[in-house]
Amino acid sequence: MKELLSIIDHTNLKPDAVWTDIFKLCNEAKEYGFGAVCVNGRFVKKAAEELRGSSVKVAAVAGFPLGAEASEVKAYEASLAVENGAQEIDMVLSVGALKEGNFPYVRKDIYMTTEAVKGKAIVKVILETCFLTDEEIITACKICEEAGADFVKTSTGFNGPGADVHHVRLMKKTVGDRLKVKAAGGIRTLKQAMDMIEAGADRLGCSASVAIAKEILTNGR
Q1: How many CA atoms within 13 Å lie on the side-chain side of 109?
Q2: Which fold has domain 2-218?
Q3: Spatial CB neighbours of 85, under 8 Å, sequence gap ≥ 6
Q4: Closest to 121 (Cα-Cα) out of 67, 162, 62, 71
Q5: By the 8 A CB rule, do 134 and 173 touch?
Q6: DSSP of 122-174
Q7: Which spans in the chain are helix H?
Q8: pTM of the prediction?
Q9: Does residue 192 contact residue 186 with C-beta atoms inside 8 Å?
Q10: Which residues contact 67 (CB under 8 A, 6 or more apart)?
Q11: What is the domain partition of the chain in residue ranges?
Q12: Catalytic residue numbers?
């Protein structure tokens, strides 16, 4: 069960987060063996310095939390984060463009970011599933694959309900082993984490990571 800790992205994307919060996040990640920390762009360089020499990676967000920025902005945000030490990028899909059926735009939007960091970082695309129908989720997953993404991800956690077992299962069924699936948003207990993994999640995004870790360690698993 302790292996579960290594697939958690320990996350703090709060707008009022200060460096002391991120410093704590980094040290908790090292202490518990989380796979990555996920932070806003302005903290990437210092987080990378803090985590240097550890196994913990730095994930940065792009187009967060709305996904409505111009594609060029997302691509630049991602490339700058990589320049500052990020090894993973969690970008938000253009939800409005997807819902209006402008699939070429959605594909180009994702492709510009994947190309900007190609060979330097993996890209997880946040679908914001709470806004999407099952059909739109399937379409979004296929577009992500065509555009070169490495992961599809459920949610930002900032816009309505977060990860949902049904959505994770649907995403996994759609992408198979070709892409990986990250569940994020509202995962606060070990049971919720296990439910997401059983549904097909390869990674988890959690702000309650320490509570989950303590639950595992307390149970001696």
Answers
A1: 27
A2: TIM Barrel (3.20.20)
A3: 44, 45, 47, 48, 49, 58
A4: 62
A5: no
A6: EEEEE--GGG--HHHHHHHHHHHHHTT-SEEE---SSSS----HHHHHHHHHH
A7: 19-32, 44-51, 71-83, 95-99, 103-116, 134-146, 165-175, 190-199, 209-218
A8: 0.96
A9: yes
A10: 91, 92, 93, 94, 95, 126, 128
A11: 2-218
A12: 90, 153, 182
Distance CA 196, CA 182 (A): 9
- Show the tokens assigned to 69: 């920025």
Is there a cis peptide before residue 104, judged by omega within 30 degrees of 0? no
Nearest CA among 85, 42, 147 for reference residue 139? 147
Give me the tens of pLDDT residue by residue for the chain, a chain 221 residues long. Answer: 678 999 999 999 999 999 999 999 999 999 999 999 999 999 999 999 999 999 999 999 999 999 999 999 999 999 999 999 999 999 999 999 999 999 999 999 999 999 999 999 999 999 999 999 999 999 999 999 999 999 999 999 999 889 999 999 999 999 999 999 999 999 999 999 999 999 999 999 999 999 999 999 887 65
Place of tokens 């949902």: 164
Residue 194 is encoded by which pair of tokens?
Answer: 């296990």
Measured between alpha carbons, how far is 117 from 138 in angstroms, rounded to an integer?
25
Q: How far is CA 106 from CA 77, 86, 123, 180, 203, in A?
A: 17, 24, 15, 19, 23
Tokens 């090894």 sit on residue: 87
